[in-house]
Amino acid sequence: MLREFLSYRSHRIALLLVLLLSLVCTQIPLFNYLGFEFSALMAVVASFCAGLLTVSSWRKGATTRSGTVWYFALRLSLPLGLLLFIPLVPISLNALFVKNCSFIHGAILYLLIPLPSVIFAHALALLISVVMKGQWKTWFVLLWLLVLFHIIVITVSYPQVFAFNPIVGFFPGFTYDETLDIVGRLLVYRLGTAASVILLILFAVIVDARASKRSLNQDDPGRPIGLKVAVASVLLLLLTGMYLLSDRLNISSSEDHIAGELGGRIETDHFVIVYPDTMVKGRRLAHLIQLHEFYFDQLSKFLRVEPRRKIHSYLYASAEQKGRLIGAAGTNIAKPWLWQLHLNVGDADASLKHELVHVMAADFGFPFLRVGVNSGLIEGLATAAENVEYEEQLHHLAAMIFAVGIDPAMEDIFSISGFMRAHPSVSYVLAGSFCRYLIDRYGIRRFKLVYKSGDFSTFYNRELGTLVVDWRRHVDRASLGEADLQKAAYLFKRPSIFAKECARVVANSNAETRSIYGQKKYQEALESANRSLGLSTSIEAIFQKANSLFKLQRYAEVIQFAEEKLRDSAIGHSLLPLRLVLGDSYWAVDSTRRANDLYRELMLAHVSQSWDEASAIRLEVLSNSALSRHIKPLFLKELSDTERTELLSRANTSGRSNALADYLQARELSAMERFDDAIRLWTRIPRMKSDALEYHRHRRIARHFFAIGKYQKSKLHLWQALNYVAGGAHAVEIDERLKLCDWMDERIGKAN
Fold this sequence. Notes:
The chain is mostly helical.
């Protein structure tokens, strides 16, 4: 059969095609090693070729074949195996030149993705060859495309972004998640694929026997017809059972299944909110409800829309739960055509407004999917509505990007696929800044027309390139300091997934380390981080190793490791927050001068409010030598809640009470959600020496008053916090919180 197979020119061309494709893949990042992306690509191409070659072989040998459908199906399996073996050779040899972090894992994926896909296409083509009277290749292509179209149907019609499919195996969806742990679920799904293959061949056997007026037993004399029917029935039951239980098997996810697992559901004026009832209740639930309505009101005015349909908001207890139910574990998403948004409940404050823009923009989006015509407009509008990213105003942040030498073509960002080429953080900020400029200068009405059409020249009477030049002039007015450049390098000088070594394997390894570290198994976490770093030098694994060493109190090793990484010119700029654990390690070995320098460097960079506060606290502690000696274990050792509280209480005894000790004790109470006690302690502090800590004190008090429903008192401390910021993004955030307080007060007044 192999010699006969190779005797046909079309068959040799197919083998040459998969060989050339595999050679091309050796030059394309992410596809240049045996992993998920290569396997998925080969599944599509090889299955297509396999189906066409099956049709060709059946028709060409129809008058001479000596055997049966079963015989033909098995006889052709060896030649079709070449479609998978030939590309496997160059991609495996490429491991000598390109790092392949887990060849075994890649081999398992190759067995689970393209191999069943080729067998499925072979069985489908065989059935078509037997059943149809002509146009066999056309029929195969149409049905093959229909099977692929199943991915679009699933990901568009259902909440999930992923899809299991007989040809592709698994489609992860267009998200920024790099982790991909699917072997277990894929194995279960491929059992269904195997059942489908046997059913297709059984149908072909039955049809062929009837067409040739032979007994079914003649096709396989050793097996009576009753057995064939029984096998077909069992397989149909198996496939039906898998379909009915697909939600529980985690190979699909419906709205009802998600709602059932989350447990909570409440309907408001504009939303149907589905939430985890075990962790969201009482005042927290009330605040989430009002946060939805507040942003709806804000965005209705900003976008000048008033959606008539209720928006379904799904809030998940954790990234793991969301990843299992719909995919996109670490990425919050919206589906405007379904009027749905899906968020991790812990991200609601930070992400709800952004995702809600996507859904509310459905009012003027491109028909059917109700979105903008490209990612630049879609994400640009949502980011523009927020006007703040990474705790900086958008135009200032865009200027920071350009200042560190990152200058992607804006025309590409507003093309169909160009948005994905740059690192996501860069694309989001630049698209957001440009869209905000257009909205502020020309108004939202024109932008909504461009959002739907992508036609800048018609609605602005200027070409996109000219608009970009005007925007750059506006952005370049920003005054930047050294700290801005440091922060920009940290945030934006990062490779995309296509430029990373073994991106999927390393991401999975880091996720495993994260889980182990969360269980406080620090030695195991260290070993896991070392394994990850042995595969590739990833920023997350560096932090994981440093933090694990620190928790194990191996301070000298932290110092040696962290200093070495910070000196590395290739990655040092991406490790800015590593200065905190490094500073703590120097403090542990009594090198307080070096610790001070590191804390100050981190604080001046203003990476985030949490890093600013952590640095400011340590600087303040080290400035008080007596207090520093007393509460040093609070920062350097693993203490229980009780031990930390007792340590801080002792710091305030014997007349040594001071603002910083009260500040730290109030933080402990806040972490335990003892808001009333925390407020009493926060408010008794007369005045922090550090303006940064005074800002954070008032900001925390405001949040606690808000949490217990005292909105006017929350506003008072928000106003106080404004005294310690120099405008910019923090002022924008406080202004929005002030409006939210007024909103809550007004709603309560109406309710009463």
